[in-house]
Automatic annotation (TrEMBL):
Location of the RNase H type-1 domain: 8-87
Protein name (database record): RNase H type-1 domain-containing protein
Domain of life: Eukaryota
Pfam families: RVT_3
GO molecular function, one term: RNA-DNA hybrid ribonuclease activity
Amino acid sequence: MTYNRHLGNCSVLDAELWGILDGLTLIHDRQYAGVMIQTDNLEAVKIIQDSSLSSSNFVLIRRIHLLLVNAELWVIQHFPRNHNKVVEV
C-alpha cells in the first residue's frame, strides 16, 4: 500500500501526525482490533500519549485520540531513525 497527501507548507510534526491519522483511519475502516504505531518523531509520541491533550484545540490530536479510543488495543513507540533498517529512497 502506498501513501501520499499534499500538505503544503507545514511542520515536520504536523506531517507526522497527518500520516498517523491517515493510517489510523485506514485501520479503523478495515476494522482491525489493534494497532502498533512506530514513529521516529518523539514529540508525536509524547503528544499522542498525553491524554490531557484530547480536549486540545489541535484538531489532528483530537481526531487521533478519537480513533485510538475505538481501537481495542493500541501502542505507540518511538523508533529512532538510526535504528530503522528500511532505507528511504
